Amino acid sequence: MKNIVVLCLFFIFVNAGAQDMVTLKFVRPAKFQGSAAKIKVIIQDNEYILKNGSNISVNVPLEFYKPTRIYCKSGLNPQASIYLRPKPEQVYEFEVGFNLKGVYINLVSGEEALLGDSKTQKDSVFVDGKWQTQLKVDKDNLALGFKAEKVDDSEALRQEWLARGGRIYYTSVMLTGTYYSMDIEKIGKMNGYGGGFSANMNWINLKIPTFKPGLSTWNSSNIGWGYDIMLYSFKYGYTEPLMSVDISSLTMTILINLNLGWTFGMGKFIDEGNWKGVAFTFKYKPTMNLSTTSSTVTMDSSSPYIQDNTSTTSDSNFQLNAGGFGFDIDFSNFSATMNKLAPKPKTKLAFFVLPPVGDSPLFVSVSLGISFYSR
Fold first, then answer.
1. Most buried among 47, 131, 167, 241, using CB within 10 Å?
2. Structural domains of the chain in order of their starting residue, each with its CATH number
């Protein structure tokens, strides 16, 4: 046991010291405009406070040749963002303050990587709090896909919780719907539809790491539950010389789960706003699954010797899985680990349509997902 602990501590400090560190200096000139207001500078979910006429220098682990978003905010003023493409052995200085448009941030000194050398992409979810959209068109089969995402306003509540700890409540819901239609050889046209609703609720209790020299620890517990309801149906028919047959089927599945988790982190602070180390996560997720299928076959005959007939069959199945144990190890910083345990709240809308071109069926799907935090 002692050897295992020593090995874990070795990995913690080797991993913490092996990061590519970049020095960032933020200067806020002393000005009358907005002098009483504080400006928050946020980097990788770490938050730093700048008062009027103050400055701060921080060392942060950044991936070279990958843009890192730095943004500033103050009260109800619009946010100001900048993307930094860092280079090794550079010190970057930024000026932060207020102008007629609100908060601003400008790069004053420090050489960035060239655009041609940067194999990166901007944050596709959260750029100044606006909707981010993506449209994809497949020219071969004329398929069309559309996606839109936006970070929910409760992200501010999550950021405050990450800085102070305590309890927070996370809720996510999703609605989905699908429709398809296709021609089956020697049978006829088949039509189907389906949809579902899912909801998950989790209470998360966080004890943040205490800033101090040497080894520090933190932990997070999670208690929650969720359920999924899915409904799918299809119908098709075919005709024979003396009769026509219609077949329909309806399937409903209900999945209920319990979500229990506990995370323990060990590591050290690189600076006051940046903790680095290893996090151990233990998970337990038992599930209960109930499914029901009902099928109906209707025969209409034009022959006096064959009687019309309608038959219905149904089948139900219940399963209880008391297992569902899991274990994860993350060598990362505190913010990255918490982004997995408590993801950013978002609103997502997606739409996809595949037209009946050639042998392709008509297929349409739409989904809406909403997640948010509350106390």
1. 47
2. 1-122 (2.60.40)
pLDDT tens digits, 68-127 = 788 888 887 778 888 888 877 678 999 999 888 788 999 998 888 764 444 333 333 344
Q: Which residue has the higher pLDDT, 246 or 366?
A: 366
At 172-217, the pLDDT tens digits run: 999 999 998 888 776 778 889 999 999 999 999 999 888 888 898 9
CA separation for the pair 267, 217 (Å, rounded): 6
